[in-house]
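Supplementary Note 3. Input sequence used for the single-chain structure prediction.
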Amino acid sequence: MTQTQSGDTAGAGAPGPSPDAQAEAVAPSVPASRASPSSVEGRAPGSTSRGHGRLPALDGLRFLAALAVVCFHFVGQAPHTMAWIWGRPYQEVFPQAHGYFAFGRLGVELFFLISGFVICMSAWGRSPRDFFVSRVTRLYPMYWAAIAVSTAVLYTVDTPFGRPDPRILFANLTMLQKPLGVDDLDSVYWTLWPELCFYLTFAVVVWKGLTYQRVVIFCGLWTVAAALAPGADIPLLTLMTNPTSAPYFIAGMAFYLMHRYRPTPLLWGIVAMSWLLALHFLLTPDGGRVDWSEWSPWRGWLVLVITVFFALIAAIALGWTHRIRWRGLTVAGTLTFPLYLLHDIVGVSVVHRLSGRADPWVVVGATAGALVLLAYLVQRFVERPVARAARRWLSSAEFSLRTPLPKRR
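The predicted structure, written as discrete structure tokens, is reproduced below.
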């Protein structure tokens, strides 16, 4: 790939939980009067378990985060990248707006917060097999579709990205390019590894059975591991704990426990610790989320933006947004993952070709609108049917380590 970006400019954004994850978490809670001992085990003292159907406010936030990342890539990237995309300095293209849209890269933090909340919600009451099928069928079909579209663009159109080595393509199809030490086919894919690590480690708790106590313990252990990893100089620990991303996932899970049961001092403590660690890793001079040589805003704005993100998820967890029921938000939520995966190579290539031929804002607006339409078409006619077929196939398959019976001759 000819585009080289580091740190937060390497496609600052994330898919967050798969678009329809909330739709999987619609089973009503067991009424307290008829709850079995096992169902009562996970409750916080004095709490009452609440229903956990789909939350349109989360869908709306996820879509806004995706749009923020899109606008960041078109308008707010590092000066040398902007010059590479538009063919001229950003001062000539977006002299005032560039500084504001640069904050769009922080959409990744909001994605991770939402992911912790929604994945915990969608996994509750599921077996390990159900959780595995759910994650695989929600993540890989759209990811592979996006790779197919991006590869077609890279190999058939004269783009500024160049043509990648086929080895990169094969490694990226596994979604394990990070541990394999292979470049991302698309710079935005870097956020998939923290998501995948979250799924893999959280699957252990799902295997044991989700309860209030077990999720709290998981949050505590992950917090300690993420805090120790940078100083431990153990690459595998850092690779698996993802210290710069972990606080957002952890806070998201704590917020879901508040939503499912009630807020407690313990849960607020987990959120407060996560907020502090998130700001630490965001503001650290080196080895954190931000490449200060390319973007160096006033630190107070970064603290404010992250705090607002935490406050928004807190409002949802505490039920302050329960009146928000607009169905359009749910539809928008389903477009977030395809929009995120498709916007970089496809969108930047379009912007690059149209640069200088029309007003820059017209180019950005038309390209973003076209990408939303493309995301809808891919989600509706590719991802959804493929995921449905994959779900049926995996649900009917036998997952067993026992040696199968020999063939009859």
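Residues 54-396 form one domain. The radius of gyration is 21 Å.
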